[in-house]
């Protein structure tokens, strides 16, 4: 796995976001995913490859087919950082409340 | 009294919308957001402290401050003011800094629009929109040049210990 890739690169592209949204319904084959997009199968395949490198999706072999599914734990990383950012502002504003009382 | 805190990330739009009411008149809240002596008192989330080095609150001017960790380690935060409507709104561009506080102009930027309005009861609403150039850099901005994730963790631990 390319260590330079992280979950933020997974969501940095509109097609990849659309693929992730699609996979919230359930695991899908690359062909089924590609069927939802106007772009070429190769282009979609490249996005799926990046999503896999970012750890946003996992693949599972079912019979002769490869299915891709969301890696929910990895997707939670974004929530985790957003939560840290929310907490930062919440903490700042609470500190500001105290300052305004004395102003 | 509720402070109506809103924090809405819209990652697809590369925006975070933050709203908060303050129980003080608009002049005081404006001052707290623009006067470096006051900013230093609330911008650093405990146990971090903020120390302003340069504050030139004019269009084209900058605010350069250091987030100082409890161990005394400094991380610089840089913002350039791009628009000011005195007493009601200002916009700024955030940039990453090197270890000496010089902005890295080639690095991704963030943009912040902050608006102030008077609300009932001599209170003030602050409405802020932070826009990122690239989603993949949101984490870097969230890091804010320092490990606030860790800081938050410690705060939570403090709260937990206090409640025991």
Strands, helices and their partners?
The complex is a heterodimer of chains A (103) and B (164).
Chain A: H1 7-10, H2 14-23, H3 30-34, H4 41-54, E1 57-62, E2 65-70, H5 72-102
Antiparallel strand pairs in A: 1-2
Chain B: E1 6-10, E2 15-22, H1 26-34, H2 36-42, E3 49-55, E4 62-68, E5 74-85, E6 89-95, E7 109-119, E8 123-132, H3 138-143, H4 148-163
Antiparallel strand pairs in B: 1-2, 2-8, 3-4, 4-5, 5-6, 6-7, 7-8
Helix pairs in contact in B: 1-2
Gist of the model:
The complex is a heterodimer of chains A (103) and B (164). With 103 residues, chain A is mostly helical. Chain A has 5 helices and 2 strands, in the order H-H-H-H-E-E-H.
Approximate strand percentage of chain A: 5-15%
Report the CATH topology name of chain A: Arc Repressor Mutant, subunit A
Count of runs of 4 or more consecutive helical residues of chain B: 4
CATH-derived topology of chain B: Alpha-D-Glucose-1,6-Bisphosphate, Chain A, domain 4
Order of helices and strands of chain A: HHHHEEH
Under CATH, the homologous superfamily of chain B reads: START domain
- Average of pLDDT of chain B: 83
Main sheet properties of chain B: 8 strands, antiparallel
CATH architecture descriptor of chain A: Orthogonal Bundle
Number of domains of chain A: 1
Q: What does this protein structure show overall?
A:
The complex is a heterodimer of chains A (103) and B (164). Chain A is mainly α and 103 residues long. Chain A has one domain (7-102): Arc Repressor Mutant, subunit A (Orthogonal Bundle). Chain A is built from five helices and two strands. Chain A has helices at 7-10, 14-23, 30-34, 41-54, 72-102, and strands spanning 57-62, 65-70. Chain A has a two-stranded antiparallel ribbon. In chain A, strand 1 and strand 2 form a beta hairpin. The longest helix of chain A is centred in the last third of the chain and has 31 residues, at 72-102. With 164 residues, chain B is an alpha+beta fold. Chain B has a single domain (6-163), classed as START domain (Alpha-D-Glucose-1,6-Bisphosphate, Chain A, domain 4, 2-Layer Sandwich), CATH 3.30.530. Chain B is 23% helix and 41% strand. Chain B has four helices and eight strands; from the N terminus they run E-E-H-H-E-E-E-E-E-E-H-H. Chain B has an eight-stranded antiparallel sheet. In chain B, a hairpin with a 3-residue loop joins strand 5 and strand 6 (89-95). The radius of gyration of chain B is 16 Å and the shape is globular. Chains A and B meet through helix 5 of A and strand 2, helix 1, helix 2, helix 3 and helix 4 of B.
């Amino acid at each position: 796995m390319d260590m330079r890739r992280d979950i933020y690169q997974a969501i940095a592209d509109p097609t990849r976001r659309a693929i992730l949204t699609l996979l919230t319904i359930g695991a899908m084959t690359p062909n089924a995913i590609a069927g939802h997009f106007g772009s070429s199968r190769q282009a979609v395949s490249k996005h799926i490859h990046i999503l896999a490198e970012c750890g946003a999706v996992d693949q599972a072999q079912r019979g002769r087919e490869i299915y891709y599914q969301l890696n929910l734990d990895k997707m939670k990383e974004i929530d985790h950082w957003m939560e840290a950012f929310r907490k930062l502002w919440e903490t700042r504003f609470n500190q500001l409340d105290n300052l305004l009382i004395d102003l | 009294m509720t402070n109506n805190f809103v924090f809405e990330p819209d990652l697809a739009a590369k925006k975070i919308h933050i709203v908060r009411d303050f129980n003080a008149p608009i002049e005081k809240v404006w001052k707290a957001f623009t006067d470096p002596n006051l900013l230093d008192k609330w911008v650093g989330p405990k146990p971090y402290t903020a120390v302003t080095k340069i504050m030139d609150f004019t269009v084209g001017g900058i605010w350069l401050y250091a987030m100082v960790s409890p161990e005394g380690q400094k991380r610089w935060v840089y913002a350039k003011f791009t628009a000011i409507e005195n007493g009601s709104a200002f916009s700024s561009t955030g940039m990453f800094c090197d270890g000496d506080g010089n902005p890295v102009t080639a690095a991704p930027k963030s943009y912040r629009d902050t608006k102030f309005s008077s609300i009932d009861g001599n209170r003030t609403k602050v409405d802020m929109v932070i826009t990122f150039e690239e989603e993949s850099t949101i984490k870097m901005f969230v890091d804010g040049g320092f490990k606030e994730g860790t800081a938050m963790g410690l705060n939570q631990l403090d709260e937990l210990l206090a409640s025991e």
